[in-house]
């Protein structure tokens, strides 16, 4: 999502308008690195995505091995695994109550990193 948003900022959609009617070379440069950097720094959506990635990276460091397996099965695969299926795929298998307790713990860790809950 981050790279997609960066591309959207770098190459915004515009209706084509040919300002170079005379046929000569254009003196206007179409790509200015400083303007692109400013656009990225001022875009609230892109800054939110950067913040979420930073929080996710910090969270992965604090996770246990089993929590990391749950995270990878639930959010990092192309297949859709609901919580019950994630519990069945883990070794040892987790019951419905166990996997939902693990989910609550993961969400609690995320809320603490996000600053929603006190540490």
Question: What is the compact description of this entry?
Answer:
By secondary structure, this protein is mainly α.
Question: Could you please describe the fold and organization of this structure?
Answer:
The model has no long low-confidence stretch (mean pLDDT 87). The chain is mainly alpha-helical. It has two domains: 1-10 and 26-62; 64-114. The chain is built from six helices and no strands. It is elongated. The chain has helices at residues 2-10, 33-42, 44-62, 65-75, 83-89, 96-114. Helix 3 (44-62) packs across helix 6 and helix 5 packs across helix 6 (96-114).
Task: Summarize the topology.
Elements (H helix, E strand, L loop, with lengths): L1 H9 L22 H10 L1 H19 L2 H11 L7 H7 L6 H19 L5
Helix pairs in contact: 3-6, 5-6
Any descriptors?
elongated; mainly alpha
What is the number of independent domains? 2
Helix/strand structural class: mainly alpha
Overall geometry comes to: elongated
Catalogue the unreliable spans. none
Helix content: 55-70%
Count of DSSP H/I helices: 6
Strands, total number: 0
- First CA to last CA: what distance? 29 Å
How confident overall, as mean pLDDT? Answer: 87
- Radius of gyration based on Cα positions: 22 Å
User: What share of the residues does DSSP label as strand, in percent?
Assistant: under 5%
Can you write the helix and strand succession as a string? HHHHHH
Largest sheet: none
């Amino acid at each position: 999502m981050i790279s997609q948003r960066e591309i959207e900022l770098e190459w915004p959609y515009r209706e084509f308008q040919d300002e170079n009617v005379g046929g000569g070379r254009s003196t206007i440069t179409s790509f200015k690195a400083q303007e692109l950097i400013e656009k990225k720094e001022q875009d609230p959506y892109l800054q939110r995505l950067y913040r979420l990635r930073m929080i996710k990276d910090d969270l992965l460091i604090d996770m246990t091995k089993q929590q990391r397996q749950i995270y990878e099965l639930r959010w990092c695969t192309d297949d859709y695994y609901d919580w019950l299926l994630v519990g069945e795929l883990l070794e040892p298998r987790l019951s419905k109550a166990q996997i939902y307790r693990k989910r609550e713990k993961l969400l609690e860790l995320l809320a603490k990193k996000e600053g929603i809950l006190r540490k």
